[in-house]
Amino acid sequence: MNMRPPMKKLKVATASLSGCLGCHMSLLDIDERLLELVKLVEFDRSPITDIKSCGPCDIALIEGAVCNSENVHVLRELRRNCKMLVAVGACAVTGGLPAQRNRFDVGEILERCYCEMPGTQSKVPDDPELPLLLDKVYPLNEIVRVDYFIPGCPPSGDALWKYLTDLISGRMPRLDYQSFRFD
Questions:
Q1: pTM of the full structure
Q2: Which cofactor does it need (predicted)?
């Protein structure tokens, strides 16, 4: 798809909360179209740029579920600074695989993993540098307002490309059923 660059490049930020980074890998899977994308947008906070904070931006793509206090901070910062927030992938949309821990007590999980398993230490780490775990795992829309959702685990590079180019062009983003992938 050959797109005409917008008058002013849109600013795009991305973040990965608690998940596997598969959605960012799908973004890289747009392959050579990534070169076309950088003609249309400027990347702000993103693993692609290694920028750690978010300034004002037009679109924020966020993958992963909300599992800890740092995730909440990053998500709220992005929501404050972006015009459109897009939940990308099953973890961001529903809590995904990280939400499997919601059936259990967090304290019991930590005790089991750090104190009871063979070869582990005798206490749960309590370093102040570690983010505080939340009582359960949340999808993004339970913490902030989300403007758009891209389902999939992960969404394909083609689906992300279509969605992004629709947003950049000012069209309502639409994906057909064949675009959804849950590996």
A1: 0.88
A2: [3Fe-4S] cluster
